[in-house]
Amino acid sequence: MKVLFFFSTFLLIGFSSCHQPTKENSTDNEKDAYLNIVDSLINIDPSEALRRINHFLTEYPQNEDELFIKAILIKGEILSLRGANDSALIHFNIAQKKSLDLDNAELYLRSKLALGKILYSRGEYNSALEIFTTVQQLSSDQNLMYKNTRATYYIGKYYHTTGNFNRAMDFYIKALQQTDKDKASPLITYLKLSIGKCFLNNGDTNTSLYYYQEAYKNAITTGNLIAISHALNHLGSINNILGQHELSLHYHYLALELRETLALPSEKAISYNNLGRTWLKSGNIDSAVIYFEKSLKSSLAAEYKKGTVKALTNLARTGHQNKTEMYQNALSMAESSNYNAGIANARLNMGLLYFENGDFNKAIESLYISLDKAKKSKLSETIPHIHKGLYKCYLKINDLQKAMSHLEEYSRLKERWLLEKNQQQLAEMFILFEADKMEQNNQILKADNQLKEMSIKRKKMLIGFIIGALILFILLSLLIYWRFYNNRQAHRKQMELNHQLEIANREKDKLMSIISHELRNPLYWFQNLTKSLSIKHRVLPPETTEKSLLALDESASQTFHLMDNLLFWSRSRLNRITPKNDLTNIHLLINQNTRIFSSILEQKGIMLVNNIPNDLAIKTDPNLIGCVFRNLVSNSIKFTPSNGQIIIDVIKNSENIVFSVTDNGKGIEPAIREKLFKQNKEISTLGIMNEHGSGLGLKLCFEFIEMCGGGMFLDSEHQNGTKICFSLPVPIAEAFQTVQKPETFSANTLRHKVSEFNPITMD
């Protein structure tokens, strides 16, 4: 039971702490959800619920909205549970008035019901009935069925308390039918307990026990700790009637433990009273007196009149020295609250006291009043004792006729009571038999369960062994796969290294071939020309000398260009080139890198047109882009006929800048065009004048443009010239100025222009 209590409390308090609203950012929906959680917490931990509702009212004081009314109602209900009925009444009256002002029917009916419950606990049954009847009618009109069901239940309690058990049963059954759809409703627990009590009042112990057990199951399902304590209390009472005192004490102590934990004075008073009755019936008067006194104290603190009447009556029955005063106080309180069962018991005991004191007329008067109230409340156990008392009184005053009449009634009722007692004992025996039979079945089931558990354990061991074997197999498989995978990766890496080595060897062979063949020829001619000039320069005519010098210039330019490409190519292969973004004037860069071609341009009569604006500057690597322009112009010169034209131009869009080198040469054949930009392919073809090339130029251009973040493409038709373009991203670039008229250079002009700039030193 403690585990259930603390688990339920932990869940609700933990959930509510995560959803506690703050003044700054909470919405009405969040506040309402928080209040609903606190409302649910009432039946698990009233102290925590009170702390949280006080915090809420401190954060949102004196508002006139529905949330404030709901908070006031919740606080009033907590105070009522704690026995502070006067404070609770103040809260309920405030809630009733404000909900009426806001025309909120649900909150108004809830506050009315709460007021009725307070009046009922104080013994003002008729006033409480008026409220319950009003709530029942209004809730029916407003289609608020939950409020209607609760009102119906409390009307049934009124008739139950006043002794009209059949009428009470009608209201209980009606309310139970209305809540039947909501199996988790705590109200079902209270309805089944009340129905069971009606059957007990009519002498049907078996049916009563059945309803008590069903109520307890429902209370456990809902997790409502107050409802659980009520169910335990009723199970304790019926076991006391059945003579199962130890079991009765067990249930009552469990109920008391919960009620003490929840700090509910009126509920504790009921548990104390029932424990006292159980100890009294088992013959332990001292323990009974202790618990009756505790019950009286708790009832007075909670203003629980019904409990006070019971405690005073039971305490006086133990032979207390102030028993006369106690009976009188109990009678006075029972009469003021119209508590018929309390009046009947108090009048019976007062009549017996009058008889002991010799005041037979007062005894007869008191016993007749007791008989009337007992009949109204159907107190089947009390009525025979009243007739017995009247018989003794009339016998003392020599009214033998009335004495015999009451003796006959006493005998008849006693006989019926004995018959009912026998039936009850038979029922108890049947219950004990069923319990014993159930215990035997439980033992059989327990043995069967033990066998099943052993079988399950064996199966678990087998399954564990199989799982272990599977895990071992999986681990071995993973190990084998890991080794296979590593070997495959190593083999793949070795193949890649072999492939790279093969490529490196091819490139080395290519380099050696270029050095031995392409570089040797220009150097050989350069050596022959210089030797010839050094020996014959005095006798050679000027025209021959000039041609020889031009040939030397062309040979030196080709050799320099080839060496430059070889240098860039080798650095590229060794990954030693890192692009550097410097602000570069493209017009000047082109002039600087094409000056080496002045002789060949003049010799072939080719016009080079630089259409790049003088003030165009972009951030890029000048060495790489200069090499690109140099190679593209070199290729154009190679394939452009005499008196041809080479144009360098630029196009800029929103994202890229595109440069083009266009010639009117013989173009590129389709078969060669497809292979131009493929990796590991160096394409070399003879120029118009059978000029040789290394095949490195376009490959270097393609690689360098990619390093700078651009792309390269061409537009060429065979015999219709070639246009090679490359694009560069321009993250930072100067805006275009008005494009000036293009500069057109002949070979002599170009030579004069480029001589204005210092040569570029290449790394």
From TrEMBL:
Indicate the transmembrane segments per the record: 461-485
User: Is Iron given among the entry's keywords?
Assistant: no
Question: Which GO molecular function terms does the record list?
Answer: phosphorelay sensor kinase activity
**Swiss-Prot/TrEMBL keywords:** Kinase, Membrane, Phosphoprotein, TPR repeat, Transferase, Transmembrane, Transmembrane helix, Two-component regulatory system
Give the first-level EC class, as a single word: transferase
Pfam families, alphabetized? HATPase_c, TPR_12, TPR_8
Q: Does the keyword DNA-binding apply?
A: no
* Recorded superkingdom: Bacteria
Q: Where are the TPR repeats?
A: 149-182, 269-302, 344-377
Reactions performed catalytically: ATP + protein L-histidine = ADP + protein N-phospho-L-histidine
* Residue ranges annotated for the Histidine kinase domain, each copy included: 514-732
PROSITE patterns, per the entry: HIS_KIN, PROKAR_LIPOPROTEIN, TPR
Report the EC number(s), separated by commas if there are several. Answer: 2.7.13.3
- Identify the InterPro entries for this entry: HATPase_C_sf, HATPase_dom, His_kinase_dom, HisK_dim/P_dom, HisK_dim/P_sf, Sensor_HK_Regulatory, Sig_transdc_His_kin-like_C, TPR-like_helical_dom_sf
| Entry-linked PANTHER family | HISTIDINE KINASE 1, TWO-COMPONENT HISTIDINE KINASE
Official protein name in the record: histidine kinase
